[in-house]
TrEMBL record:
It holds the Pfam family SNF. SUPFAM superfamilies: SNF-like (SSF161070). Belongs to the sodium:neurotransmitter symporter (SNF) (TC 2.A.22) family. It comes from Campylobacter blaseri. GO terms for molecular function: symporter activity. Keywords: Membrane, Symport, Transmembrane, Transmembrane helix, Transport. It is found in: Membrane. The keyword NADP does not apply. This is Transporter. The keyword Transport applies. GO terms for cellular component: membrane. InterPro entries: Na/ntran_symport, SNS_sf, YocR/YhdH-like. It is a multi-pass membrane protein.
Amino acid sequence: MNKRETWSNKLTYVLTVAGATIGFGCTWRFPYLVGENGGGAYVLLFCIAMIILGIPMMLVQNVIGRRAMKNSVDAFIVDKRDGSKISKFWRFVGYMGLIGAFGILAYYMVLGGWVMTYISNIIMHKFILSAPITKEYTEAFYYKNIEHNPLMVGFYTFLFVAVNWYILKKGIINGIEKFVKFLMPFLFLCFITVIIANLNLDGAKDGISFYLGVDFSKINAKLFIDVLGQVFFALSLGFGVMITLSSHLSKDENLIQTATFTGVINTIIAVMAGFMIFPAIFTAGLEPAAGPSLVFKTLPIAFSYIPFGGILAVVFFIILMIAALTTSITIYQVIIGVLEEKLNMNTTKATTITLLVIFIFGNIPSVLAYGPWQDILVLGRNIFDAFDFISANIFFTSTAFMCCVYVGWILKEDAIYEISNANKLKSPLIKIWYNYIKYVLPVIILVVFIAGLTTI
């Protein structure tokens, strides 16, 4: 059996995990939820939720992955240190994660196609942002080029999938690690460029005041539940990504440090995304509570009020594309890793089959959901939205819940042994974390799960 590849160093792993979590969750979903929920109150609760849910849950999946050093299905049935067997039933949790990964990729890649559609149309001057434009103009563009142009969206979705294929066929080290080391610094550079430009706008002060100013009257139980759900989405929890990535992590790495670094970086990036958006929104006098259409319909209007707005808009959408790419390659790797190890496939074959199957049975239906197949509804939603709802509200949370139960009630002392690097690391946080994920965290996740189902 070949020796399992491990990340070159801690920084590379942290960058890769950060890339996995800095996707549309940070750059698209987080800003519009902030806008819908009154600004700073949401931001404050998000930071709190990252501490009470995000980082502890990442540690759960890191323990499962690094302990087994196997794919996200077989990781659940590796014998304990004392030789006792773990029931084959637990592989079911891994398979749930695969279904969740399929569900998110089914629509996620289409969002990537939307972003590439915007980039190409702005560059080719088919979507002009050089003068103040109206909401009717952006809505007409969205209606014509996104909702009612499945051929164009399908082409760019295929192109986005092809870029993923090119990276993934090279493997987890020569492919994912190599490209993330280049993409992440470039992503930060683009972030800083847009933020600096926006902070010099006339409405920057009002935008920042809305974004960071906490109105405590906005804080309620529903808001807290919404924030907890966003942490699941933002950190790619519940569908095997962290299990897969940490299975390539050296046994000498400090899991507590790496999980903390990742949670902090994800929070910083999410907060930075707000600085890219709200100063521009308030400069243009637009409504921040635009919902999911904030980025695609409202923000282009704001860019039209900014000097060199067309260029900044391209940079912004490139940020979205790179963030989506660093996430999608790691989600794909969950499924690819299972095919490689369980069916003994080579990387190129496993990559091709994975991306092709998801494209045919997930991406194409999601593209058609806003056009020819718009009348096909699942749980009262079109196909695109149904993939989002089912994967996020059912598979993500239920898989995360089972992971907590597995670590806290099945692995028990083996989990402590793993997180302490074979008892070499001495910290009171280890015992606190273990009891927390055994008794408290499953209850929090269960509440999020039930709350999510009430929206059916």
